[in-house]
Amino acid sequence: MRKLIFLLLTITLVVISLLTVKQFEYTQFQLFNESDKSGEVWEINILEGNPNVAKTENFQILHEISKELNVNIQRISYEKDDEHGDKMVYYVALSDSEHYFNNLNLINGVFLNTDSNSNEFLSTINTNSNNQIGQLELFKSFDPIEIRPMMAAERKKDIKGVYSLSGTENKDRFKELAISYGFSIGEAEKETQGILTEYPYQDMIYKTTIILFLLIGLATFHDLINNYKAIAIRKLLGFNFFEICGYLIARYLPLLLKSLISAFLIIIVYLYLYNGHSQIYEYLISLLQNLTPFSYAILTTFILTILGIFTINISQMIKNKKPMKIILILNILIRFILSIFLLITIYEGVNTYLTLKNTTSQEEKWEILNDYFFLGIVSESEDELSEIPNDEEKDRNFINFYKELESEGSIYIVPSAYYVTNIDQYLLDPNPWGYDGKRVEINKNYLDINPIYGVDGEQVELTEEEDELIVLVPERYLNAEEDIRQTIYEDFNYVYNDDENIDIEIIYVENNQTYFSYSTYFAEDENYLITDPIAVVVNANFDTSILMSHLAMGYGYYIKNSSSDDPFNQLDQLLDNYGFNDVWTPVSIAYASVESKIATEKELLQLTILTCILYAFLAFLLLFFSSMNYLEMNRQLLSIQRLFGYNLLEKHIVMYLFIIVFWFLILLISSYLVMNATLLTKLLILIVVLDICLITVIIKIKEFQIVMVRDE
Q1: CB atoms within 10 A of CB 499
Q2: High-pLDDT (> 70) share of the chain, %
Q3: Euclidean distance between the first and final Cα of the chain, in Å?
Q4: What is the DSSP letter of 667?
Q5: How far apart are CA 90 and CA 78, in angstroms?
Q6: How far apart are CA 417 and CA 415, in angstroms?
Q7: DSSP letters spanning 202-258
Q8: Is pTM beyond 0.90 here?
Q9: How far is the C-alpha of 571 from the C-alpha of 372, rounded, in Å?
Q10: I want to staple 159 with a disulfide (CB 3.0 to 4.6 A). Which of 49, 80, 200, 378 is the partner?
Q11: Mean pLDDT of the chain
Q12: Average of pLDDT values for 431-437?
């Protein structure tokens, strides 16, 4: 039993240590992004540099302003590297490099300084570039992060953009100086201070630790029961409470120390393989913080267990009569709690697996998004965005810009809220054809990658410009044509062509055709396929405000990559040509959101599988000990039943009924905590069958040993 206690202690320490690795990785990445943000941080929007000087001189002016104000100025850019993929670049005008790098460490090399040339940079990875002067230490790097001098931005960016600096006074002085140098400055906004969010899988640490504590307490209690005759003898010999506690501490303290050493060695080896011991001291401090509640819980567990021993009758101790009923009740209670966690964890694991399977099974369709990318909003100023529809020239420029994007092959699809994954249908408008109904919005280019066929069997093809508002309707809804027309009219009058009396053309298409959502937010349970919606075809005749809202949602509108070597730069140039490079900017390849979802689900699935294995192992231990206690308590009855020829089912029918009731109660409780009760029930049936099979095997093997051998 002491070996089991040692094993449980070691498992607990290793599990907490490994989960702390993921937690520390997550929080350190957030902290990295919060560096040099002491005090109030302001975002300043440079609308235009000095038009009378070259772009290089504008960036040099920015650097001089930084020195004059003695403040560090930073700009963040998301870029793509041919060799290392997506990366985040911090362009910094340094006036106080020591303050900027105060919370950062290097694996090797030196930090940038105020005199660094524009080619030098720092990175979280080893790029093998002669211009990399240092490698930043990060516990675990996701996409590479680089820090470069502000002058380096001249090769990638225009001077226009959003910059951040600390201090209200610095913000005001910066604006004055920049204007004096001929810059055009927009309104400054106070940056929202980053809040370190809790590690997404923090609850795994809590749940696993609670279960292991309960089992450690139960194992300790078992061990004390097996040896409580020795405690009784000490009490009879006059040992006081503290002397008996000293004996018990001497019995269990070495186990705890051995567990600590074993777990420490395991995690040290793991960290060496994981990240080469990067930031190991900071990690160990974080681990100690997580282990502090563990130490209190272990101490409390041992104290309560030891105190429980003193409630046992001494005469029973001397006669070596074990309190089997108490042990069995404790086993059942802890197993009940563990079984709830086990069932829900298996349910979550299966759900994650099904979601991951759904995502990866459509890989051929998702890969199309490698040829498209997102736009992001540069300025958060609502006034600036609202100016476009109200300014005749800007409105005309936007429509021309939108038409050019369409002509290059950009695609658009946004399903209604009806298809949002796991949405509560009771919250939606009941109109089946409205904004919350069985409806999607697409553009004509979408039909090139997801063909839809009309009732004549021919692929639907739309011309460049349509005077009417086109709606594709499955043939099955033929009888609902008037309702569909009325709903579309009410939803889109004044939105299409600024005309109250819009012309609606309905094109009937074959039934049972699907629209792939190209977004992880919609129709997840249906493999991201939307079957037989009505499809409203969006084009440049829609209201400008509507079209603008489509461009930078992070999903739905995907801009086609050009065939040039630098499509991001080409789109930047296109935005600049129409005067919108201070409003939108290319952010990332559209496939990146799918890739991120797959990576997150894989990590969650791995953690869930490990947790399930741990819970299943612990549940089996409890099942084994509960079976032993059950056989010990009913030893005499089972002996008599054996003599009278009772078969296995007749002898243990009550136990089997108890197992069914036990799991039924677990199902009742667990069903309140999950959304898919059908899946939960299927999983529970499998677990019950496995549970009955295991306990039957254990009883068949151990019954003869406990009942017959001892009777002899």
Answers
A1: 13
A2: 85
A3: 26
A4: H
A5: 9
A6: 7
A7: HHHHHHHHHHHHHHHHHHHHHHHHHTHHHHHHHHHTT--HHHHHHHHHHHHHHHHHH
A8: no
A9: 12
A10: 49
A11: 80
A12: 84
